[in-house]
Amino acid sequence: MPRHFVPSIPDSDAPWAGYVAEIARAQPGLRAFLRTLLPCAGDADDVLQETNLVLWQKREEYDSSREFGPWARRIAYFQTLAHLKRRTRSRESQFSDEMLEQLAVETERRSDALEDRLQALRSCLEKLPEKDRDLVKARYATGASVKAMAGDIGRSADAVSMHLYRLRQKLAGCIAQSLKLGDFQAKGGEG
Prior knowledge:
Layout: H1 17-37, H2 41-57, H3 68-89, H4 97-127, H5 130-141, H6 146-153, H7 157-180
Helix pairs in contact: 1-2, 1-3, 1-4, 2-3, 3-4, 4-7, 6-7
């Protein structure tokens, strides 16, 4: 995966360290957002670079009481429009502004929904007993094999596999309940 420009922090800008961390955390989501708007990966990477630069230039305009992701995606959207306008002049554009706006709105909606699900998952994981939480993390965060995990805890691979299945079912139910109750709506609400 290509590396993207994320500003380094000169000593005089140390107060901006948290902001730079937000930019860094936003990279995978921004790239995915841009890939839905720009069919060519190279174009998405170019626009991501431009977006990172604009995010840094606009750092003093960011309202830290609002969620960073929607704000960054909005800037990425405008950078995409600018990119496509440049391409239109050279007759390479494939999407109308209206189509691009529809794609951006749908992608933003899905991104917010995914963030809600991730927040619910984190909360539901915390509700599991520590032993079960460690088992889930070993399997899915570190990628340990069921066979290796079974050997570590002295159980059969089938028993560990069944236990993981039950934990996934339990987590899925917890997530669905949390989302149904509206416990995890994306912060900021607007992009």
